Amino acid sequence: MIQISALPAFTDNYIWLLQDQSSKCCAVVDPSDAAPVLAWLGENPEWTLSDILITHHHHDHVGGVEQLKRVFGATVYGPANEKIPARDVALKDNDRISVLGWDFDVIDIPGHTLGHIALYHQGVLFCGDTLFAAGCGRLFEGTPQQMYTSLTRLAALPADTLVYCAHEYTQSNLKFAQAVEPHNRDIAQRVEAVSQLRANGKITLPSNLALEKLTNPFLRTAETSVKEKADERNGRDNQGGSEVFASLRSWKDTF
Ligand code: ZN
Ligand code: FE
Q1: 121 is catalytic
Q2: Distance between Cα 109 and ligand 2 center (Å)
Q3: What is the pLDDT of residues 131-164, one digit of tens each?
Q4: Each residue of 96-125: b (16+ CB within 10 Å) or e?
Q5: What is the mean predicted confidence (pLDDT) over 48-74?
Q6: pTM score > 0.70 for this model?
């Protein structure tokens, strides 16, 4: 049985901590900073850090890797097509790895960065900065078409999949979602729920794919009202999901 919890880092990053109770081994996903992980391990000395999983090369995802590797000798897994510090295992699309006894499938999801990967294990998804709760990552390296294809791939996973993304952006993403779909009741409900969580200082993650499909504009490009809004913003007749996506993404960049 593996337990997943969040170690907050910097202003809005989460480092996901995976704990295997039987072996007392743990793993972290995207350790932006070594300090919160070292602090947790200091308070929980019976646990050993055995594995480090990386979704993409940005500093706020790999900043703690070298120090953690030096202290614990953990195995570092990261995308094959990016420069990842201290990487031991280079991951390619459709690879399968075993971490803490869990099988993870590697899914290539270029867009935010060109080598970005997601890791999926039966209803659990670590997707870094690609799919966010109610939003998606910026296109720093890839094209809108690449990101659209990547999001489509993630959206095809089972609806009850839990989405463990790397940032607490849900509240601001929902403001944009409401601008795109002012009459969407699921979004309105989610705004309420998320405001309450944030007011109590609570995390809004993980999300799940079913909820994302109801409230995330970037997964809703096939909805007529979303297409029409994108057309209106863009002053053109967007053809197909990828163009609607591109219009929404560039609107969000300046929202
Ligand atoms: Zn990033
Ligand atoms: Fe990030």
Answers
A1: no
A2: 15
A3: 999 999 999 999 999 999 999 999 999 999 999 9
A4: ebebbeeebbbbbbbbbbbbbbbbbbeebb
A5: 98
A6: yes
